[in-house]
Amino acid sequence: MDTVPEVVQRAAQPYAGISAWVTIANIASVAHRIPEVFGWLGGQGIGPAGPPFFRYHVIDMQRELLVEVSVPVASAIEDDGEVRGGTLPAGRFAVMTHTGAPATLMAATSALLAWAAERGLAFDVTQTDKGEQWGCRLESYLTDPAVQPDTRQWQTELAFRLAD
What we know:
Elements: E1 6-10, E2 13-22, H1 28-31, H2 34-44, E3 53-59, E4 65-72, E5 84-88, E6 91-99, H3 105-118, E7 125-128, E8 131-134, E9 137-141, E10 155-161
Antiparallel strand pairs: 1-6, 2-4, 2-5, 3-4, 3-8, 3-9, 6-10, 7-8, 9-10
Protein backbone atom coordinates (compact mmCIF):
# COMPACT_ATOMS: atom_id res chain seq x y z
CA MET A 1 0.00 0.00 0.00
CA ASP A 2 1.25 3.46 -0.88
CA THR A 3 1.10 6.45 1.40
CA VAL A 4 -0.90 9.48 0.32
CA PRO A 5 1.44 11.88 -1.49
CA GLU A 6 2.26 15.13 0.26
CA VAL A 7 4.39 18.22 -0.21
CA VAL A 8 7.24 18.47 2.28
CA GLN A 9 10.11 20.88 2.83
CA ARG A 10 13.46 19.09 2.78
CA ALA A 11 16.81 20.43 3.94
CA ALA A 12 19.95 20.17 1.81
CA GLN A 13 21.67 16.79 2.28
CA PRO A 14 25.30 15.87 1.50
CA TYR A 15 25.86 12.45 -0.05
CA ALA A 16 28.42 10.11 -1.63
CA GLY A 17 27.56 8.36 -4.87
CA ILE A 18 28.52 6.74 -8.16
CA SER A 19 26.84 7.90 -11.37
CA ALA A 20 26.55 6.38 -14.82
CA TRP A 21 24.73 6.72 -18.12
CA VAL A 22 22.57 3.61 -18.61
CA THR A 23 19.60 2.40 -20.60
CA ILE A 24 16.41 1.33 -18.87
CA ALA A 25 17.35 -2.26 -19.80
CA ASN A 26 20.64 -2.17 -17.85
CA ILE A 27 19.73 0.18 -14.99
CA ALA A 28 20.31 -2.69 -12.53
CA SER A 29 24.04 -2.50 -13.34
CA VAL A 30 24.17 0.79 -11.43
CA ALA A 31 21.91 -0.40 -8.60
CA HIS A 32 24.34 -3.24 -7.92
CA ARG A 33 27.01 -0.63 -7.11
CA ILE A 34 25.33 0.52 -3.87
CA PRO A 35 27.58 -1.86 -1.85
CA GLU A 36 30.62 -0.13 -3.40
CA VAL A 37 29.46 3.20 -1.99
CA PHE A 38 28.87 1.65 1.44
CA GLY A 39 32.29 -0.04 1.24
CA TRP A 40 33.99 3.23 0.34
CA LEU A 41 32.26 5.01 3.23
CA GLY A 42 33.30 2.25 5.64
CA GLY A 43 36.89 2.50 4.40
CA GLN A 44 36.83 6.21 5.21
CA GLY A 45 35.26 5.65 8.62
CA ILE A 46 32.09 7.45 7.52
CA GLY A 47 28.69 6.16 8.54
CA PRO A 48 25.57 6.62 6.42
CA ALA A 49 23.14 9.35 7.50
CA GLY A 50 20.12 7.60 5.95
CA PRO A 51 19.02 4.96 3.47
CA PRO A 52 20.62 4.59 0.03
CA PHE A 53 18.91 6.23 -2.92
CA PHE A 54 18.79 6.41 -6.69
CA ARG A 55 18.97 9.92 -8.08
CA TYR A 56 17.77 10.46 -11.63
CA HIS A 57 19.58 13.41 -13.22
CA VAL A 58 18.58 13.00 -16.88
CA ILE A 59 15.82 10.73 -18.16
CA ASP A 60 15.18 9.61 -21.72
CA MET A 61 13.39 6.27 -21.47
CA GLN A 62 14.01 5.56 -25.17
CA ARG A 63 17.76 6.22 -25.04
CA GLU A 64 19.80 6.80 -21.88
CA LEU A 65 19.40 7.95 -18.30
CA LEU A 66 22.00 9.61 -16.10
CA VAL A 67 21.48 7.99 -12.70
CA GLU A 68 23.39 7.92 -9.46
CA VAL A 69 23.41 5.41 -6.62
CA SER A 70 24.15 7.27 -3.42
CA VAL A 71 24.15 7.26 0.35
CA PRO A 72 23.46 10.34 2.50
CA VAL A 73 26.29 11.42 4.82
CA ALA A 74 26.54 13.90 7.69
CA SER A 75 28.95 16.27 5.96
CA ALA A 76 30.39 16.91 2.50
CA ILE A 77 33.03 14.54 1.15
CA GLU A 78 35.80 14.96 -1.40
CA ASP A 79 35.56 13.11 -4.72
CA ASP A 80 37.65 9.92 -4.75
CA GLY A 81 37.80 7.94 -7.98
CA GLU A 82 34.31 6.94 -9.04
CA VAL A 83 32.81 7.94 -5.70
CA ARG A 84 31.72 11.54 -5.89
CA GLY A 85 30.41 13.90 -3.27
CA GLY A 86 27.36 16.04 -3.78
CA THR A 87 24.55 17.83 -2.00
CA LEU A 88 20.87 17.26 -2.62
CA PRO A 89 19.13 20.63 -2.90
CA ALA A 90 16.81 21.98 -0.24
CA GLY A 91 13.28 22.82 -1.24
CA ARG A 92 9.72 21.65 -1.56
CA PHE A 93 9.29 18.05 -2.68
CA ALA A 94 6.30 15.91 -3.68
CA VAL A 95 6.81 12.76 -1.59
CA MET A 96 5.15 9.37 -1.21
CA THR A 97 6.22 5.97 0.09
CA HIS A 98 5.56 2.93 -2.08
CA THR A 99 5.35 -0.63 -0.75
CA GLY A 100 6.00 -3.27 -3.37
CA ALA A 101 8.52 -4.96 -5.61
CA PRO A 102 10.91 -2.77 -7.64
CA ALA A 103 9.02 -3.69 -10.82
CA THR A 104 5.99 -1.78 -9.48
CA LEU A 105 7.85 1.51 -9.00
CA MET A 106 6.94 2.78 -12.48
CA ALA A 107 3.23 2.67 -11.58
CA ALA A 108 3.93 4.41 -8.25
CA THR A 109 5.93 7.10 -10.05
CA SER A 110 3.08 7.63 -12.51
CA ALA A 111 0.67 7.97 -9.58
CA LEU A 112 2.85 10.61 -7.92
CA LEU A 113 3.20 12.56 -11.18
CA ALA A 114 -0.58 12.44 -11.71
CA TRP A 115 -1.25 13.54 -8.11
CA ALA A 116 1.01 16.57 -8.60
CA ALA A 117 -0.57 17.44 -11.96
CA GLU A 118 -4.07 17.33 -10.44
CA ARG A 119 -2.93 19.95 -7.93
CA GLY A 120 -1.16 22.16 -10.46
CA LEU A 121 2.26 21.44 -8.94
CA ALA A 122 5.21 21.87 -11.31
CA PHE A 123 8.39 19.85 -10.91
CA ASP A 124 11.95 21.16 -11.06
CA VAL A 125 12.58 19.66 -14.50
CA THR A 126 13.61 21.03 -17.88
CA GLN A 127 13.66 19.40 -21.29
CA THR A 128 17.13 19.15 -22.87
CA ASP A 129 18.42 17.44 -26.02
CA LYS A 130 19.48 14.50 -23.80
CA GLY A 131 16.08 14.18 -22.10
CA GLU A 132 14.35 15.50 -19.00
CA GLN A 133 16.88 17.10 -16.65
CA TRP A 134 15.66 16.92 -13.04
CA GLY A 135 16.71 19.27 -10.25
CA CYS A 136 16.24 16.38 -7.83
CA ARG A 137 14.32 13.14 -8.39
CA LEU A 138 14.95 10.44 -5.79
CA GLU A 139 14.04 6.86 -4.97
CA SER A 140 15.18 6.14 -1.40
CA TYR A 141 15.31 2.47 -0.44
CA LEU A 142 13.85 2.23 3.07
CA THR A 143 13.93 -1.59 3.31
CA ASP A 144 17.10 -3.64 3.76
CA PRO A 145 16.80 -6.73 1.52
CA ALA A 146 18.90 -8.71 4.02
CA VAL A 147 16.23 -8.08 6.68
CA GLN A 148 13.14 -8.36 4.42
CA PRO A 149 13.65 -10.82 1.53
CA ASP A 150 10.01 -10.53 0.34
CA THR A 151 10.23 -7.85 -2.37
CA ARG A 152 6.47 -7.25 -2.12
CA GLN A 153 7.14 -5.75 1.33
CA TRP A 154 9.95 -3.41 0.26
CA GLN A 155 9.35 0.28 0.90
CA THR A 156 10.70 2.99 -1.37
CA GLU A 157 10.25 6.72 -0.83
CA LEU A 158 9.78 8.77 -3.97
CA ALA A 159 10.75 12.44 -3.57
CA PHE A 160 10.65 14.81 -6.56
CA ARG A 161 11.68 18.46 -6.12
CA LEU A 162 9.04 21.00 -7.06
CA ALA A 163 9.81 24.13 -9.07
CA ASP A 164 10.39 27.30 -7.04
